[in-house]
Design brief:
The chain is an alpha+beta fold. The chain is about 15% helix and about 35% strand. The chain has a domain of about 70 residues: Copper binding periplasmic protein CusF (OB fold (Dihydrolipoamide Acetyltransferase, E2P), Beta Barrel). It is rod-shaped, with a radius of gyration of 39 Å. About 10% of the residues are buried.
């Protein structure tokens, strides 16, 4: 009887003795991306039109001398009320050209005809 109880006790303890424990390690990493801020300043140049090629270029004579601008597809030509001007600009018209970017890469946003 002692042997039976002892055998029974060993049978109950044996699985616990040989049981394998597993350990799971989780590592969490966080990467911070630096935030970039871009500042855009709109500048204007006022003067009179010397040459104009619709959709391509406009040259304006200002107090600094002649200034050339490349017209992109987004450039709008409007009057003081903001209405789109459909007639081509003529030499001698007073305009104000609003642009962004450095001198070498000016991007025209709009041209306001002042006449």
């Amino acid at each position: 009887m002692k042997k039976t109880i002892l055998g029974f006790a060993c049978a109950l303890i044996a699985p616990l003795a040989f049981a394998q424990t597993s350990t799971t390690t989780t590592e969490q990493t966080t990467t911070t991306v630096p935030e970039t801020t871009t500042s855009t300043t709109t500048t204007y140049s006022a003067g009179t039109v010397t040459t104009y090629e619709p959709g391509k270029t406009i040259v304006v004579k200002s107090h600094e001398g002649p200034v050339s601008f490349a017209l992109g597809t987004a450039a709008r030509i409007v009057d003081h009320a903001g209405k789109v001007v459909t007639a081509p600009l003529q030499a001698g018209q007073k305009v104000r050209v609003y642009y962004t970017g450095p001198t070498e890469k000016r991007v025209v946003e709009r041209v306001i005809v002042e006449d």
